[in-house]
Amino acid sequence: MLGAATALAGFAWDDGLPLKGDARSRRCGSTLMLGLSVDAAGRIDGLGLRAHACAIGQAAAYAFANAARGRSRTEIAAARGALAAWLAGEGPMPDWPGIALVEPALGYPGRHDAILLAWDAALAALG
Predict the structure, then answer these.
(1) Residues 14-63: tens digit of each pLDDT
(2) Across the beta sheet with 44-52, what order do the strands follow?
(3) This protein's superkingdom (predicted)?
(4) Domains of the chain from N-terminus onward
(5) Among 3, 33, 62, 84, which residue's CB has the most CB atoms within a 10 Å radius?
């Protein structure tokens, strides 16, 4: 998990990205700012982020960033819904590459909002 958190450096913030969104965990105070660009079909083709989050939130952000390219707003929203259901114990682990990194946090509901930050910020950026 810590390795994934430190790998966020590969997705550095870029002020030039045209779409921006942010999210904040009301439970732990973690925040994430996400910048995106999309292609003509509305699929993510560039991203950068700035995370001020716990290691769990950063690991989840890494899983998001590592697999977000090529995905549409509809796909991001569906993944966010599946992730929230899984965290609430109401569904299987979502089909998102790398999300197993945060499975150890299932037993810590106070960190669940931090896990959702990247998806929430992406949805805000994609309007």
Answers:
(1) 999 999 999 999 888 999 999 999 999 999 999 999 999 888 999 999 99
(2) 19-24, 31-38, 44-52
(3) Bacteria
(4) 2-126 (3.90.1010.10)
(5) 62
Dihedral, CA of residue 115, residue 119, residue 121 and residue 126, to nearest 10:
180
Who contacts 37 (Cβ-Cβ below 8 Å, separation ≥6)?
A: 17, 18, 19, 44, 45, 46, 47
- What are 32's two structure tokens? 């994430």
Find out whether 21 and 122 touch, Cβ atoms under 8 Å: yes
Instruction: For the chain, give the secondary structure using H, E and C.
Output: CHHHHHHHHHHCCCCCCCEEEEEECCCCCCEEEEEEEECCCCCEEEEEEEEECCHHHHHHHHHHHHHCCCCCHHHHHHHHHHHHHHHCCCCCCCCCCCHHHHHHHHHCHHHHHHHHHHHHHHHHHHC
